[in-house]
# Entry
Amino acid sequence: MLHLIKHFNTVIKHKWFVLVYGRRLHIFWTALVHDTSKFSPTEFIRSAKYYTGVKSPTITEREDNDGVSWICLHHSLRNKHHWQAYIDYNKEGMVIAPINYRHSVEYVADIISASRVYNKKLDWTEIVPYFERQKERYLMHPGNKEFVLWAVIEIRDHGFKSMKKKYMKNKYNEIMAKYSYSVRIPLDKEFFSPTAIKE
# Structure
């Protein structure tokens, strides 16, 4: 019961910070409805079970579930700021589509908020190296990676006052124009060989 309450408080705190930062980034409505699926039974009950207060429940769930997080699988496909929702597959391999402008900005508010929730004394200089480390293992469109990195550096160096809506949109369009619409990752034959058989 205590974990349910603590997890609920963490979600509310996270949503509050997303709303605060989202308003400053000109996406008030998107920030208001951010992560509503966290209150669904699939996510909320499992998240409370794996709650620690110092890291995402998805990390703890993966440690206890052979690398799989049902919380993350449910959440990512219902919240369009997550890069996992933009991965497709065809006979040539994986195809990564871009996250649109609004949800890219929501992602910026999301990572700042998550940093704030899990780090009570937020040091803005920590967000940039955190994202730089994480982005190498994200299957996120390279244009989105560049935009998010640009945004967190801009906020770190100049604050939210520099993040005017037109300025941000122009920067997003400028960055995305450098890349092809989709990115393809070919899968070799070894990928399809059976690796799940227990010995």
Observations:
- The CA atoms of residues 52 and 121 lie 18 Å apart.
- The mean pLDDT is 89.
